[in-house]
Amino acid sequence: MVTGETGKRLWQMALPVSVSALCLFGLLCCKGATTTHYDGEGATAKPTAKKVSAPVAMEEETGLLSNRDCVKCHSQVTSVIAAKGESHKTEVTCQDCHDGHPPEIKEVIPKCSQCHSGASHYELKGCLTCHSNPHTPLSISLADNLTAPCLTCHEEQKPQLVEFVSAHSDLDCTNCHQEKHGMVPSCLDCHDEGHSPEMVQADCSNCHQAHKPLAVGYNDDLASKQCASCHTVAFDLLMASTTKHHDVSCATCHKKEHKMVPKCQDCHGEPHPASITAKFPTCGSCHNIAHDLNK
Fold first, then answer.
1. Does residue 154 contact residue 181 with C-beta atoms inside 8 Å?
2. DSSP H or E run through 159
3. For 283, what's the count of Cα atoms within 13 Å in the CB-facing half-sphere?
4. Which residues pair with 292 in a beta bridge?
5. Of the ranges 60-69, 119-128, 188-197, the best mean pLDDT one
6. What is the pLDDT of residues 20-48, one digit of tens each?
7. Which of 47, 143, 168, 232 has its CA 20 to 30 A from that of 54?
8. CA proximity to 114, closest of 101, 103, 132, 99
9. In the chain, domain spans
10. In the chain, count of helices (H) and strands (E)?
């Protein structure tokens, strides 16, 4: 064993080498090391590499927000979208509409025209008048005295109201449809008992269309009692008759259009010799009227 001054010098020379060797050994060990996890009691610890998924890494690197971030603060809004968001739930994300977040971005409320274009309805001003909550776009609240905005979507009704003029043509759409968008009111809400106390809403639609109510139309199988609501005298005469006309419905003869009066020849042809028809050109001269025939 070397002692004294000579030993001290040898120790000073060996120490850097030992430290270097130790560091080198540690470096080599750490180079191949990974984190470990335990697979259960009695199991051997297995090395697993710590991995960061690409989307998370990208979010961390770029600082972009995701829907998961929005939920952390705006949970109430996201709940509303989940319940009634319609296409705003299924076709867009928060970031599609809200391009950034304060304080970096100040104007975060988008214009509807950012996405909605290409139709006359989307050219209207004041979208929030009806679509009061953009997160529930089809929960529509209607203001008073609206017509023009409605007709940009409900295009079929406009020509009916213009071409077939009636008292309905002078009404705003919201006169009838204000309670709820898409709600179809009963005619009897305004027209009291209709043509008779027995009438119900289904009876009205047998003859009348709401946007052209005076253009009366009906199917061939319309019950004659429906006609009796207005044409009481003709119906009573027909019901009292003992001729075959008693069993013929009103719609059978008056089927082309309302108030159309058919010719007897349309059904009966020319039953009499020409000499008779020349002397009596009008059937009613002998047979009275169709609803009250002479025997």
1. no
2. helix 157-163
3. 17
4. 289
5. 119-128
6. 444 444 444 444 444 333 333 333 333 33
7. 47
8. 99
9. 61-141, 145-216, 218-295
10. 16, 4
